[in-house]
Amino acid sequence: GSPKLKPLALQLMLDFVSGNIGDPDTAARIARLVVAGNSIYPTEDIKCREKIQLHSPGETTTLVDPMKEVDLYLAELCSTCPVDVMPGDSDPSNCFLPQQPMHPCLLPHTSKHSSVSFTTNPYQAQINGMTVLGTSGQNIEDISKYASFGSTLDILEYTLEWRNLAPTAPDTLSVYPYVDHDPFNMMDCPHLYFAG
To answer: What pTM value is reported for the model?
Structure first.
């Protein structure tokens, strides 16, 4: 859901995933599609930091139309392949990491499909024997605010090297308080690591 929505790009992706364009054998090999957060365009009135503030009832309409758009699009995607939906900074979910899954009632058409899973952020799954680990990108964005490590890909590589998904938490990245252990430590190296 975005004021800069590109319907053609979204339709091309849907056609590719469903095998209508491109190589149908490639589309058939798609095991799972992960929507890595920020399904809603991050306008200033939707951003996570503002989620904490109380809004008047009339302001809730800023989320309704974008959520309907996302719901209809994801419902179409779910009819072609399994889809995991992660929350992001601008999505209607808690803003502290780990973010809890979006509630299915927010996406009523999508949640009717058995091929959809509403997941946490960070996300970890075993897909075809491979460990997949990723975030919606808040951790990488936060590091880039306070350090100059080069590109986003470089920062992603450093977090793997440091074996910590969120090294700036809890100082500058909002997380739930943990006393005994850091839940963002990586015990094993994933086969696939991503940030949205």
So the answer is: 0.86
